Amino acid sequence: MRPLKLIELCTGIGGFHLAALMNGYIETICTSEIDSYNIQFIERNLKLDNAGDATLIAIPESVHPYKKLVEQDLVPVEETGFTSLCMEDFLEGVLDWPDLLTAGFPCQDVSPANLQGNAKGIDGEKSGLVHEILRIIENLEPSYCVFENSSNLPKRGLDYILSEFNRMGYICEWETIAACHFGLPHYRHRTYLVAYLPTTAVAKGNRRVFDLAKKRANKLPNATIPLAEENPELIKEWAVVEDTRSIKLRTKRLNSIGNSIVPQIALAIFDAITNAEKSAQATKQVNPRKDEKYMATSLTDGWGKAQLDLFSNDIEFVTEMPARGLMINGEIYSGSVDRKLNPTKTTYPGLFSTIISRDGNNNFTTKSRLNRPGKLGGLVGDIMRIGADKGGLNPEFAEVFMGYPVGWTKLSAA
Question: Yes or no: is domain 4-223+260-334 CATH 3.40.50.10810?
């Protein structure tokens, strides 16, 4: 099969791109990132084109701010460092149409870690970027789309996202998946959503993308790094760098790792897609399974219980989605939670907290980390609890902790 063409939005440190490399049948044709460190990482390490601000992707050339540079006979990428992805670039064949679009879009307004009491979900300032991503999808019509976000997304905006994908004619599957059964020593529950067109091999083969993820979720949580309770001295030796200034851009690297996806989960999703494409069958269609029960139907005002009297004013609308489900032909189905993908938070006592985006900002002398509720002290707080009291977190430990190769985030020479 020919490689599927991937555009990775909200690229960060390229977790989806790494999964594409491991898959071998997916080619990243462009990225989209505005964080200063991640921009350097994409240019130096990944050596990929970066379109920068996602709001400028798949818009007409006539309204693109780079138009003024073109009128001055200047090359936009040479002047700004960012590649232009106007609609004309796709329509005129300058860039391949994407088969696959991914986005681990910002979760700050969705995440339960937002303690300010003002989480606005996908209408928030940062997480609201998903509206632009949906616009890009509508304009480019990729065959497959993969989203990653907080496990809280089903309560804070998934209903709208599903409505938009339904309007655009996509089928959607979503699951809450934890990292621990992929061998990592922390839970990191996240919502993964895969949307695909009815014309794709996945749809025509009546396959389910997350079936392969269930098979891959067969490891114990300490397969990559021992649990703290098993060998705290080894963990401290590996996780702690006493001279924090000895590692260039340590804070930036850690904060980007804290915002990253788990590439092994993305790989399972990608493998399921390319496996279907390599053995395409056009004899079936996606249908709910026996254990998946009807939940709601797309109505004018949202997702409602269609069995109720539609002429009544007592229609029950559903805004909070379940942790897993299927959306097809304007109807939502859901089954029981799969504990291989979504184990309870009490299944494995002694797991680390997941790394958070600000774990690079605080060293092991920051005592406030020990007073934060639940797991909000992050990985820094956990390493402090096993005795670290000086220095800071080692990014190489954090890379392996999240499933990346050692040194993945170290910037290559310019």
Answer: no
